[in-house]
Amino acid sequence: MKTVAPDLTQFTLTTDADGIATLQWDMPGKSMNVFTDTTMAELDAVIDHVAGDPALKGCVIVSGKPDSFSGGADIRMLDGIAERARENEKTLGADEANRLFFEESRRLSLLFRKLETCGKPFAAAINGVCLGGAFELALACHFRVVSDDPKTRVALPEIKIGIFPGAGGTQRVARLVATGDALLMMMKGEPLKPQAAQKLNLVHAVTPKAEIVERAKDWIKAGGSAAQPWDQDGFKLPSGPVYSKAGMMVWPAASAILRKETQDNYPAAKALLQSVYEGLQLPMDAALRVESRYFAHILKGQVAKAMIRTLFVSMQALNKGARRPIGEPATSISRIGVIGAGFMGAGIATVAALAGIDVVLIDRDQASADKGLASADKVMASRVAKGRATEAERAAFLVRITPTADFSALTDVDLVVEAVFEDPSVKAETIKKAEAAMPASAVFASNTSTLPITDLAHHFSRRSDFIGIHFFSPVDRMQLVEIIMGKETGPKALATAFDFVRLIGKTPIVVNDARGFFANRCVLNYLLEGHLMLHEGVPPAMIENAARMAGMPVGPLALTDEVAVDLIHKILKATKAALGPQAVDPVQEAMLTSMVESHGRFGRKNGKGFYEYPEGAPKRLWSGLSEFRTQALDPDSIDIRELKHRLLVTQALEAARSIEEGIVTDPREADVGAILGFGFAPYTGGPISMIDGLGPNRFVALCEALANQHGPRFLPNAQLRAMALKGERFYP
Question: 520-726: which CATH topology?
Fold first, then answer.
């Protein structure tokens, strides 16, 4: 009996003369399709319709969006499921709340399993990005064809926000791809190009964009099977059984790599590994249930909650303009000036030109400006070599950058970004010369990393149009940009800076003026703690390893080298000169002075810092570091947990002080800025989320314990003490 086509709001269902249905997914009012409760209900009805209509041979699922298939599940929906579970525990009790939560969290998994076992073949025709739950939908389809469009990518990136593919992804990928490759693909969460996905056996065909639907239909017309390989007799796993010679080559190594890469800080990674390990030993339905149990456990946990909030919800809000001044019209930025063609200036010119902006790149002479262009070209050449750009795009990119020593080239720019040497007098001279040449409508921005914007603005007559735009190094790879408001900076300058940062694809946070702003204040505390540990006699390797165990991407000694030992030394001297000797730690000052002035160790840039950098060999800690310790502590007597606490708490405490002082006014910006700007342990959700996760009362107690042991730098600020007494948190 023929079924009645369902009423749909997010899909359009049509049938051709061959009896093949096309389901076009096009959520109204959305730039990208995502799974919501409504989406799942409508897809469920479509499956019933296709399966129940004998006139239909099968169905092709395609997106109605021009540049994307789908971004996957609405993460807010998943977060809402976990929040409801927490609330249900209070009213229904833990057992019933957990039962309801488990069933709700596996709804998408059950829906996809229903699709692949409904008895009719389904094909996915993919163009553009197909991520997360959307790719899990595609994997549940019996045939997958993707376009060869350069923008087409497939991925399961859930691990990046503290969860893992929980709608069947772990089981289907591990049954299509060799186990090691499957684990790597899901653990990294990186997008795959069409050809790479086909090589891994994740998609069946790659065709031109205009042909993907017809290619999918041809497969159905040719008698495409409605049974997945794993549901057919004789199916064999790509890498053989878990308990086999081949399997034992994978699993011990996978466990060791997991521990090394995550330091047991990311429960989702461990759960992913367990899901695949256990699931491959079971029939598909039982395997999916195992995956769902692990997924529910992870989704309800503190790590997932914090990472989802910061790395998805908050980051999206900031990127969409949560901190852009209300009422300011959109700005048009087509041409900018960048003054200073060194490493930072060339990097700023590079990201601007990549975004299609024309750049005037100025330095003290033509040779220096040309050197900056060469640096930009080096980045572009690397992109070409990696297949991320073409030679034609490289040529167009180079045309956009005009190197010169002539400030008069600034006469028609919309924005000027100064990136000269970090010296107040040099910057003052640069600002005056730029203002004399630039139009009165343009905004001036300083890329200073430590000098107060309000002070620099004194050298510019239109102080309301003066702002700070602090990039992080290397500019082309670092996602964060701090926009710094001087005391007289106006909304037009903020809107211009914000629009520029978004135009070049970076994430902006807006902070108020202060020495070191936000990110550098936290980073300098992190470096200081590592230097003090070295002075105390903690072995250098233990300091670095403790930092990585705490979740930091690089240890404080290595980071000092990357930033440059001599630069940190200059910052200390400038701080001391401006604020007095009490503003710097004498132990750190003496250590860095000796490093720079007595030993000529400037960091990675001259191959000598806390590490040695032998040519053609891995870096190694400098043997001369023993000079800076007061004693040699027995490593077995050192509490590694305390080292980890010190390295994280010092940063979190500085973030809390920044909020109390009004430097950061939104906890979302502190968390997003800390993770993107200096790699603060992502599993915490950021320093403010770390405080909230512990609870301010427990965090204050931890600070006080560290202060008793290591000094007043760990004493909690007044706002934290008040929050602890009242039971308040930074986030509602």
Answer: N-(1-d-carboxylethyl)-l-norvaline Dehydrogenase; domain 2 (1.10.1040)
